[in-house]
Amino acid sequence: MPKIEMLRAIEILDSRGRPTVKATCSLNGGASASASVPSGASTGEAEAHELRDGDASRYGGLGCRKAVANINATIADRLKGHHFVDQHALDSALLKLDGSKNKNNLGANTLLAVSIAFARAHAVERKVPPYQHFADMIGQPLRTLPRPTVNLFSGGKHAGGQVVIQDVLVVPMSATTVDESLATVYSVYQSAIELTSKKYDVRALTADEGGLAPPFESIESMFDDAVGAIEHAGFEPGADVALAIDVASSHFFDNQQYHLGERSITSDEMVDTIKAWVTRWPIVSVEDGLAENDWDAWPTLCDALDGARTAPPILTIGDDLLCTNPQRIQRAIDHRAANALLLKVNQIGTLTEAGQSLSLARQADWQVTVSARSGETEDNWLADLAVGWAGNQIKIGSITQSERLAKYNRLLEIEAETGLPLADW
User: What's the pTM?
Assistant: First the structure.
């Protein structure tokens, strides 16, 4: 039974140059590990509270000194010297210490840093890889490696809004390994650089998560350029490489209307628009196709996408809609509002709560995409979590920038260690 000997934290910077939290946990047997937590730019209203300092004179109010102090003082003072039989016991103590419904007191970023650092330290104590420890945490065997869905083009809040939707991703469908997947994505990404540089006469400038962000004329041209890059790389769109889209509709939904550039359309018309997209282009996944509080229209979207194509199946993924929150996931299951979960542990605050969300999704026979955030660090725990929790897909970002590559490279390491197969679509 691990006993916490030391907890400490420091403020570090994420991939956008904004502060975040890194925590270190040491156990009585000498095992020690650290964890750094991410932060999102496109955030849902129902996400757990991320504690920031609010001091406008430092990092524009985004400092994390309060979160760090909460770990170094409040949490460390209460938890040091105590035994915790497992992750659930540790996370329960954290939630009790916070005492609020939405982590308003200590902050979800504070709790998550401690939660993951403890899990890693416990894995070290048990002398098992983190991915095995995460699998044991939910009582499931290791099964597969998650299939990468990789940012190609970005718009919305990730890229200055040259188009309103947030991301177009490529999905290596015919690849059978992570290694082959990344090689495929590299070819498509380089083709996209070549084609868009000529078409738009711009350098290969990238967005928050490494996606290319040329001045697309429209959403449709963004899709056309993605298909063109797949073909130019020598792959068959839809068969070898498909598309996934993060619409992030909440950001252009106002007064019960979706504002697609100069067009303002109703929820039903937005559903028809998305159905037309997946009919015309090889799109296999639609994330946040509707706004997070447009609950009545989500079942219509899910039904429309289910009927748009028989193979491969199209995922209706909830991100802002669900916020990795068990209550919202259960509501979506009851109303058949989605058929896939985008799992982001920092949306809820502890590994135990994220595990509850995972369990609900699995019981409903949903697919699960384990996702990074736009503000990431070079920490790679997400790759171990996605493998241990048998994520169907993993969404990290593009194949540039060290905070993204740390996770991809960790997946390659795990693949070499385990020989696990890549998850089917």
Answer: 0.96
